[in-house]
Amino acid sequence: MQSLAYIAKRLLLMVPTFAIVMVIIFLLVRLLPGDPAIAIAGDKASDADLAAIRERLGLNEPLLVQFWLFLTNTLQGDLGRSILMKAPALGVILDRLPTTAFLTLYAVTLSLLIAGPLAFVAALNRGRWPDAAIRAVFQVGLSMPVFYIGLVLLTFLAARARLFPVGGIGHGFFENLHQLFLPAMTIALYTSAIVMRNLRASIIEVLDAEYVQFARAKGLSSRLILGRHVLRNALISTVTLLGLSIGNLMSGTLVTETVFAVPGVGRLMLEAIFARDYPLIQGLTLTFAVLVSAVFLLTDLVQSWLDPRMRLT
Amino acid sequence: MTRDTILEVRNLTTTFTRAGRVLPAVRDVSFSLGRGEVLGLVGESGSGKSVTLRSILGLSRHYGTVTGEVLWKGRDIAPMSERQLRTVRGREIAMIFQEPMSSLNPLLTVGLQLTEVLKAHTDLGRTERRKRAVEMLDHVGIPSAAARLDDYPHQFSGGMRQRVMIAIALAARPELLLADEPTTALDVTIQAQILDLILGLAREYDMGVLLVTHDLGVVAQTCDRVAVMYAGRIVEEAPVAPLLSDPRHPYTMGLMRSVPEGVAPRTSLYSVPGTPPALDALPMGCAFAPRCPSASAQCSAADPALSRLAPGRLAACHHPVSLAKGDAA
What we know:
The complex is a heterodimer. By secondary structure, chain A is mostly helical. Helix content of chain A is about 80%, strand content about 0%.
């Protein structure tokens, strides 16, 4: 009950955020030099088409009226028609969204699976060779661009060893676990490097905390101390980091989906930009804003679940 | 008066290495503690008293090198593995810390933090553990204990948190309690309550207490015997009454004089001149010599050994002082 009220409050707080996002998206097309109708319909549009668009968006009306029209259209789910796909933008986006969502979640899961155990090994061997080795390897991962890692994986594991497909998506959950392994891994290598560094640092900090000393003095087993007392406390800052890096993950999908020919919203965004498909760009921008906000809310919920001190507010 | 010894610490030395510098935090410390005895470990910050306490339970070795013997009921627990130590820690020797806020895990309910000790050290079942936890919280003076089992540490006040920590430490009925400045972080009014609680429980369970404090007032109220530490060494050890009435080491005397007692209002307070030496730059001879009013050439040449001056009285000083003799004349 309390958490429902909390979520409702957080959703209300998002209203101003989205108002600003809407203004930016609205101005995007109108601030371009030239006729917004041509920008929206494309160079090859007929005069009749342009007239229809001017009518629908109220381009002959004052700016405030135009904004009102834009706002009501958007709230009703009308994001305009994609020039590229020749279909309603919303439908095109919703069609591609599950693929990207799957890829992103897959990448985050892989990152945690890679970074979690290694962060523990590094932290518990602080200053000794396993720590140095793990940090050195991840340093390499951090200093390479995502698309390069992707190309290396593609060359060796897909093209040469033929362990994984070169691109595209499959059908169903398990097929896609295999199909999307390389693109997810490409994103995960970078993300896990960030997560590992952060988690290692917070585990080291928590290991020195008085309550861990107290837990030791109580005669608890190492497993209980690490699993119950250390991990949860260390995860708090890592959850924040993961939440904040959602923007990074999104731009990661942009490149990765292109390299691996995965038909998700990331690649769609690049296609839309190259084709100057403004309705689609607007729709995708709004989609990304919604996703980022949703992830921030989720981060806060996970944190208040982890940390009882955050539950009261 | 003679009690059988349960803890005997021999030549305990704990050294940390930080940024290439060797820091001897505890130097050749030896003392013993009888069953049910309350021994005070007094000294300034950085004198090594907390590290001594942590070294006894094997908590310091994660950060530095510990040598020497810790004979617990005749058995040396210093070389034991973490796994072996689990049967001693919390079960036979318990420890409480200075800061009750940072010593309780903020993410776990006090009920869980209490019952996990019982789970580790007793055969009690789940419901029995909860029952025992409530009894324990009630016993240390937590009002409506049963209703507070599922509360988190931040929902308790400072004094109540310290009571919770005591309840956790004593849940498995240990024979020795290591108390690291248990009242320093508390309001003065709460301090006396917590000390009374610890002493009352010690008497009830026939439990020894090794009390680390920098407060001589606390020592006077609570301890049977006192060991004074300076720069990682014990410089004086004596039963509490003679130590307070007739300190033999100049440092102990300086400590006593810095307690404002019977001093006219608005006179400046006494403090031992100078500052304690840095651990990586200890002087050649007696570490206290640079601050000592009665230091001689001998003092800066050789570190005096802790030697017996009278029955039960030990001091590490080339020129032990005596108020009793001087003032009586």
